[in-house]
Each structure stands twice: as C-alpha cells, then as structure tokens.
Amino acid sequence: MNQIDFKLRRAGALLAALTAIGGGALISGCGGGDSSTGGTISEEVSTKANNAQKEAEAGVESVEKGVEETKEKAEDAVEEAKEKFENSKGKGKKSIEEAKEKAEEAVEEAKKKAEELLP
Fold first, then answer.
1. Is 101 inside a domain boundary?
2. Residue 116 forms part of a structural domain
3. How far is Cα 69 from Cα 63, in angstroms, rounded to an integer?
4. Among 42, 79, 91, 118, which is least packed by CB within 10 angstroms?
5. What is the mean pLDDT of residues 42-56?
C-alpha cells in the first residue's frame, strides 16, 4: 500500500507542476497581442496534463496488478508450506514409531542372547 500511496503522490505532484507551468505560460501569453499563442500553449499544457494523468493511472493499475499477483503467489507458497509441514509431520511420527519398534526388537534380541549366555 505504501508504494501505491507514493506513486499517487508522485503523480499528483507531477500534475500540479504541469498545471503550474501551464498556468504561468498562459498568463505570460496573455500580455502579447498574438492570441493564438495562448490558445496553443493552453492546449499543449492540457494535453500534457491529460497524458500525465493517463500514465499515472496506468502506473497505479500496474502496481495494483503486481500487488495482486504477489499476494496470490504468497498465498500459494503458504499453502504449499502447510502441506509440506503436514506431510513431514506424518513422516516424522512414522519414523519415530519405526525407530521405537526397532529399538524394542533390539532390546528383546539382547535379552535372548543374554539368557543364552547365562547358565
């Protein structure tokens, strides 16, 4: 979210700067006798402001799409980690039980050999 806020603020600042420049150019054009210059400058500033706004909107959409994709990948990774944990948990329990059985068998064999060796 911070990245989105930052990009929106940056786009707003850019739009404000373009508007200020356009306003200054419009005011400076008003002093002359040629009225066509003021109109073209105003149109140019308006066009650039519109282009800047479109680019800012496209940037925001791109960021939102990236955030959504990252969120989905993170959710998938969490699910995969949960599955691996559950599988390893079951395997670990099974391994412990097998080791316990083998240890019990070894103890029984040791008892039998000890009885054989004792008179």
1. no
2. no
3. 10
4. 118
5. 83
